[in-house]
Every structure is written in C-alpha cells, then in structure tokens.
Amino acid sequence: MSAGASPVLRFAPSPNGRLHLGHALSALLNARMAARLGGRLLLRIEDIDPVRSRPELIEGIEEDLAWLGLRFAGATLRQSTRMEAYAEARDGLAASGLAYPCFCSRAVVAAAAGEGPPRDPDGSPLYPGTCRALPPETRARRLAAGEAHVWRLDMARALEHAPGPHRIRVFDPDGCEEERDADPGRWGDAVIARRDVPTSYHLAVVLDDAAQEVSHVVRGADLEAATDLHRLLQTLLGLDAPAYHHHPLVRGEDGEKLAKSRNAPALATLRAAGATPAELRARLGFE
C-alpha cells in the first residue's frame, strides 16, 4: 500500500454453489476490518471455473450479501474477464524458465509418486517431476499436437531466482501487524494454470489482489498455507504483497469445515426457513 493510500480489502467468493455460514463469517469479518481500518471493501467473483460457475449463482451471491446488509465499493471484478492478464503472467514465467507444461493426469501423478508420498499442505502428492526434464523439442511437439496439459511452477528454479528469505505480513483483528517466515518450497511444483483456463487459483489471486491494490486480505485458515506460495509468486511477478489475516473456520457438528461439497446449509435455505440477518449475525458473533 502506497503512503497515504486508504486500506483496501476484498471478499472473493466462487460461484460454484450458494453461500453458507462460513462465507457469511468471512464477508462480515472483512466488512468489520474495513470499517476499523477506515478502508474500502471490494467484491470479486472468482469465476475461473467455466463449468461450475453459473450466472444464477453469481446473482445468488449478490442477493445473499445484500440480505446480510453488506455494501461494496466500486464495480465487482469478475475473474472471467481477466484471462488475458493471467495468460500473460503464465507465459512470462514460462519464458523465464520458471514454469513448464505438464502432460500428466492426476492418476499418473499419484501412480508416479508411489505409496505414502510426500504431500503438499492440501494433502495432494507432491509432483515427482515427470515432465520437468522433458527435452524442449518434445514439449514443443506435444504442445503443437494440442495435448492436454497444465502449467507447473518449477519450484527449484523459482527459489534459485528468488531465494528469499520470504516474509509474510500478518495482522490481528485489531489491525496490529507482525511478520512470519514463508516456506513456499513445501508446495513443490504447484499448478499455476489449469487445462481449461490459463490460470489456477494461486496465480489469479495474486494478480487480482495487485490489480485491485488490495492492502489487507481476510480469509479462512484453510488458505493460510497457500499464502507461502502466493508470497513467492508475488516476488517472481514483481507484485506488491498485502498483509494477511486468516480467521478460524465455521465447522459443522462433525467438526469438519462447512463446504458446498458437503451440502452445508445455504444462506438462502436459512432465510427461507425464517432466519433474519440479525439472528445470523448474532450466531456468528456479530452484535
């Protein structure tokens, strides 16, 4: 954040299902922090998934947020409008030798990794590097043939290019900041662009935070480890890094975090059952 600039925060849901209590907590915490810091709160729709992102779900998100009484500054940014920017960043990393095409399916990666492989913070097997050492002519031939592929960050080269130490600014609910060390290497050769779009969540989020001049990120604790990878990408791409706060997750009776994939009760369902915004706010600790 440049000297004298007002703080900027963002709430960035994905339109692959209706919002639930976990999303409501994150949105309300962002609004509270923006008010405490005297900053602006932006809305970003992370709709890079061309299959699961649907217009009616975007409308539902906007409806839910309005029902909660949340208001956002400026125009809503949709990631689906930013594919050229993502492709340019991906191509720049590839041209610098920091990213490479990977033609392996998930099944092939799992099989190549073997039993009990080292895993990344999300629990996925670390990529064993099958495509990392492909000869340039082989890569070019397979790309020209239109073979399906993702793009991976060459972690070893990335850390040679930007050896660090990598530090992350973190802040508490009162806005007080400190720093912690980042360990991006534990992500291995992470995917930075998918087969169907020229980006992944990791690449898109750092580019969009920079483009929107986001100074403070408030998001769930399930993304805390990803911040290590994001900090490295920011360094490689020459982007300013915001400060981060990762809040506890809302969990169900089974102790698992609420998730669309596990049919967490949607805000729309709670609203239809008679819940009010005030009741929901109180349930989440907001008076």
TrEMBL record:
SUPFAM superfamilies: Nucleotidylyl transferase (SSF52374). It holds the Pfam family tRNA-synt_1c. The keyword Thylakoid does not apply. InterPro entries: aa-tRNA-synth_I_CS, Glu/Gln-tRNA-synth, Glu/Gln-tRNA-synth_Ib_cat-dom, GluQ/Sye, Rossmann-like_a/b/a_fold. Signal peptide: none annotated. Keywords: Aminoacyl-tRNA synthetase, ATP-binding, Ligase, Metal-binding, Nucleotide-binding, Protein biosynthesis, Zinc. Residues 9-264 form the Glutamyl/glutaminyl-tRNA synthetase class Ib catalytic domain. Gene3D superfamilies: HUPs (3.40.50.620). It comes from the Bacteria. Belongs to the class-I aminoacyl-tRNA synthetase family. This is Glutamyl-Q tRNA(Asp) synthetase. The gene is gluQ.
